[in-house]
Amino acid sequence: MYVVIAGAGRLGIVLAKKLREDNHQVCLIDRNENLCNQLAGEMSDIMLICGDATYPDILKEAKIEKADVCVSAASNDEDNTIICYLAKELFGVKRTVARVNDPKHIPLYKYMEVDNPIDSTSIIARIVEEEASFTDVMSLFSIKKGRLSIVRVDIPEGSPVANKSVKDITLPHNSVLVSVLRGPDIIIPYGSTVILPGDEIIAATLIDVEKDLVKALIGKI
Amino acid sequence: MKYIVIIGCGKTGRELSLELSGDANVIVVDKNLKSLDALGDDFNGKKIWADALDINTLEKAGVKDADAVYVITGNDNLNLVVGKVTKRKYGTKKVILQVNDTMKKKIFKEEGLTIVNRTYLIVEVLRKCIA
Question: Per the CB < 8 Å rule, is A79 touching B77?
Answer without folding.
Answer: yes
